[in-house]
């Protein structure tokens, strides 16, 4: 069966295949037209007399008039060239598409590789004979297949083997040998298309290695190893190539990133093709059996690579608690625990298991010999025994001896180590200098080709239906699935289709269940089950494809410290897969939720994982009518407020409301769940001054009317000053202490300032609460006034406090407002950090702004939580407080990156301008000697003074001067004036230096702000962790020493102790989340943090399981930053 339905050009005439536009004519006259088309003649002339020159311009027709039987002339040469180009592009597209879709059928028919590969092979050879352009397109298609379709690697290897050692190729070689012998010629035999493809892939591999595109390197190595059973690649050359990567592991001070990538190249190749690499290059000629022949020297060489990986793994310090999704299980139930993890350590375990069984590859993975016809396999075995009729240079591909280049510093952005090869050739457009930030497209190419920096620690929760962790089967299958998920991020629908049909590229019986037919597979017998139970240490086959896919996708989205792609990609990908087979995917998703939710009851699941899991689960429910078995969670609603399982349920309900609306979600939840997770009111604003009973209602209403009427900033400021004067009590009177809501007066100017800013902030938020655009409009309109009202840290703190009280029912809107306040520089990032950890208490605020504020709302986000000893804290079981910290740090980090890019650009322009001046000076010196006029330099581009994009509305600093206008002198005149006037030239150079120096000053300023924010967040989280751990330990000790209390009093004590313990658990989890996400940022101030903060933190008591103190975790994060 031909997967594409035959030759895609079989329906076209000869002329159309050559690129002619479609025409109903197909006679001798058309052949004459084709001849003229080839010659590119722009003139008329038909089959008779009188065909004169045509008229026309440009791309219009220049056909000649008809003579005695003469036809119209041809189109212009430009038009013909365009038609030819379009035809060539269409032909190239068809060639690529057919090769890319090899093995795939649109009509539902099965693909039989042993017969269908012959059809594909013949078609490729025919296309390759159509010219160099077609041949190059085929070479490019094979490069893409190797690095972007890993599920087809064995099939592509079989096809290449077919092209190289097919009987037609041997007969052609023998005929050419005979002709050369009869003629006495020593002319070299031309290479076959298959050999050209193989050599081109080797060339591409060298390019990938030189550019350190590690994923492409690893996938190319897997492909080369797949050619070893056919003799196209010799085992010795493959071992030599792998030895270069084992040398990386012995490098002194090798980083985890570099070591992991090199080690995984060795591990994956050996797990897939280890048995093919321990045999000799030539098998015994007198042995016709298919038994494995082992070369002792080769075995020793491969064992040496395994030992190098093992030694590297023992000295590696990559797996830390900061990368683990959940805490390991302890006690008697550890063996039955479904939650486990899979990372580099488990891959090394699989490699050692592989060595113990003589490098026998997993049986479910096809080899090239399993897919080729028996006749071709027989020829390849004859070649391996030295009995073939082809010489080695006619079918073998020589692998290069390489050295793995060192990694380059990408601190300023991705950059290629050399010329990035496009289509196997250096691309001038992609060449970059070291340290220069690449364009976004180049970064995507680099990221896709390089793959993950280090071997991540994936969370696993299925045991019985997926490959066992630490086995070669798990390494091969999960690596294949993860590569597809990562490579096809640009097309989630295609990714879902490939993942759900992955069984067709493996052995029949690899997967079982309703989602996969028993006959689905590339080779094997569906009734043969002996291979499934052949190895008890590594049971293969019979897995559930739904469980494998769901586990791989979700575990990738839960990777710590961050997932490779945005969460939305994984959410949408899993939705696409669920729609393909909802009946079989639903049980897998249900088991996933129950196991992770069940683990959260004991606090084993990381807070960051709970957060991401809740985001996916809420989005998943929104796609499927919000249906879930909520009754299973009813017992957890009796837990304390900070219990992780209850906090997870609250988070899911909150996110569902964001995706729908309050009443819609309330109707899907049982009453017991509603009481435990839903707030009594919708997430609406809490406008303190809405009630007419409030003493400031009239003034707030008047201010609201003024802002809605678009009063000018001076008018509003005058109104606020009048309000402030009215708030302060006269010297002869005092505020009514018994009923402060009656007079509304305050005794101090500081309290009046707080009230004024609270009223102004809440009125602005009230007007902007209708929509996001309304909020942006009102903030931009009164941006300058708001900046004037936030001139001091205390005033900015008052604005932040008012914001959280106004949106106390909607943490989402709190983050939106804070983000824009920081963007418009109304508040600073350091103010937000201080507000999170050291908020003003009720005692420090006027009572007139608290009585009907958001603090009194049920489930208020702004309300402080009381701790024993008169201390207060935030509700850290609410995920949004750490999100505010994350948002703030990322905001200041973004500013740092912006200024650095600006500085790099200015310095680059400065260097280029200096080079131009030097070149102009050198040219001037040469021309002066010849007596000619000196050359003039090009006009320097005026530098725009630095400013943040969010501060465009701020007045321009007077010391920067005016921006050069278009009327200023330019070109040669400007250069001449600069040359004639040394003072002016000096002034221009000073202005340019001031621009660079100003940017450097701005960078120092923003770096100082970054250090302040990082240090403040670290100190706040460390303090909170120390304080809550100590309180929880003290409460637990007091409860244990107080004896067994009975009744309600004893239950209350136990509940208080449990609540404190869970508060301490959240404190430690958010501290870990900060360390794992921002360790590379605060590692630059490690000494400062260690000396100022960490030395005093060494808590003697902590919650059970939280045995690490602040210092140990901090040092672990710093080591993680320098890996």
Automatic annotation (TrEMBL):
- UniProt-listed Pfam families: MIF4G_like (PF09088), MIF4G_like_2 (PF09090)
Question: Which SUPFAM superfamilies does this UniProt record tie to the protein?
Answer: ARM repeat (SSF48371)
- One term under GO cellular component: nuclear cap binding complex
Molecular function GO terms recorded: mRNA binding; RNA cap binding
Gene3D superfamilies the UniProt entry points to = 1.25.40.180
Source organism of this protein record: Pseudomicrostroma glucosiphilum
Task: Describe the location of the MIF4G-like type domain by residue ranges.
Answer: 470-671, 687-839, 869-1080
| Highest taxon, organism lineage | Eukaryota
Biased composition regions of type Basic and acidic residues, renumbered to the chain: 81-92, 977-1001
According to the UniProt entry, which residue ranges have a biased composition of type Low complexity? 28-41, 964-976
Q: Name one GO biological process term.
A: nuclear-transcribed mRNA catabolic process, nonsense-mediated decay
Compositionally skewed regions (Polar residues) per UniProt: 13-27
Residue ranges annotated as compositionally biased, kind Gly residues, are: 42-51, 61-75
Ranges for region Disordered = 1-92, 408-437, 914-1001
- Put simply, this protein is called MIF4G domain-containing protein
